[in-house]
């Protein structure tokens, strides 16, 4: 990938990273997370992540990959508690003095936030794809990061859960002033649920800003090679209507 200037991403807002297959979205996310070699300077709330150890970096800025790691035969609740301990093992929060009940409650709260407390005792390797994605998100938020990098966090979710998760992410992002960047393919969700969008095309961010100003028919033609209209419903919701491919 060529040099890319991404951001600044504003605390308290959700930015959707968009672009066609192979445009560099995952590569950019992985570079921001420090998982691919990069000379980029990445800062979060004034701290230079690129100068930190991967452990300190991960404690501040959590990256959820597109393909989740192989699930282990461990109850969901235990997996969440283990994730919190991993975060506390960094230098941000002391592990000692944290009562066990508090840790368990935080993990349960996180599952409840995503509407899946009933999965607490189910084994990770017995979850459906969508359930695993929800648990992954609950695990990410239970670690109390300042930044969230989510690569296609809605890819395995049904329509209800796609919107529910976006609403949760928006609420948590506002409440905790998180910097949230997520890769999306659904332009209608980006139009109606993201605060800003950034569009990658052939390894470069070619447009960024409020979704409705960025996602114009001209941009959709150039980037996605579709002939499309951006229409507005009676109640003000925007949607992309595709007439054909070009
Ligand atoms: N480890 C790697 N080594 C070499 N090339 C890679 C590597 N990872 C990705 N690429 C290439 O970089 C380009 C961008 O890939 P990337 O996964 O970032 O795209 P993407 O925008 O996330 O695509 P998609 O929407 O299909 O997930 C692709 O051409 C891909 O083949």
UniProtKB/TrEMBL annotation:
Record field: transmembrane: none
GO molecular function: ATP binding; ATP hydrolysis activity
Broad class of the protein's primary localization: membrane
Residues in ABC transporter domain copies: 1-227
Topology class, membrane: Peripheral membrane protein
Subcellular location: Cell membrane
One record GO biological process: iron ion transport
Record flagged with keyword Membrane: yes
Name of this protein: ABC transporter ATP-binding protein
InterPro entries, per database record: AAA+_ATPase, ABC_transporter-like_ATP-bd, ABC_transporter-like_CS, P-loop_NTPase, Siderophore_ABC-ATPase
Domain of life from the UniProt record: Bacteria
Keyword entries, A-Z: ATP-binding, Cell membrane, Ion transport, Iron, Iron transport, Membrane, Nucleotide-binding, Transport
Cellular component per GO, a single term: plasma membrane
């Amino acid at each position: 990938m060529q040099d890319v200037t991404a951001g600044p991403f504003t605390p308290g807002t959700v930015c959707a990273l968009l672009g066609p297959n192979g445009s560099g979205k995952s590569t950019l996310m992985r570079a921001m997370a420090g998982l691919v070699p990069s000379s980029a300077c990445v800062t979060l709330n004034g701290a230079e992540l690129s100068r930190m150890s991967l452990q300190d970096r991960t404690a501040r800025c959590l990256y959820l990959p597109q393909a989740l790691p192989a699930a282990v035969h461990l109850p969901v609740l235990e997996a969440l508690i283990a994730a919190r301990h991993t975060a506390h093992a960094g230098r941000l929060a002391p592990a000692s003095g944290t009562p066990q009940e508090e840790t368990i409650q935080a993990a349960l709260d996180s599952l409840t936030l995503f509407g899946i407390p009933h999965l607490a005792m189910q084994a990770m390797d017995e979850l459906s794809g969508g359930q695993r994605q929800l648990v992954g998100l609950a695990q990410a938020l239970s670690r109390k990061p300042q930044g969230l990098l989510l690569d296609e966090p809605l890819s395995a979710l049904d329509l209800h859960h796609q919107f529910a998760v976006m609403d949760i992410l928006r609420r948590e992002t506002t409440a905790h002033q998180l910097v949230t960047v997520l890769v999306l393919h659904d332009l209608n969700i980006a139009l109606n649920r993201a605060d800003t969008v950034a569009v990658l095309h052939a390894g470069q961010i070619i447009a960024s800003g409020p979704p409705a100003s960025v996602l114009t028919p001209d941009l959709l033609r150039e980037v996605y090679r579709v002939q499309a209209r951006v229409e507005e419903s009676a109640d003000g919701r925007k949607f992309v209507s595709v007439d054909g491919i070009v």
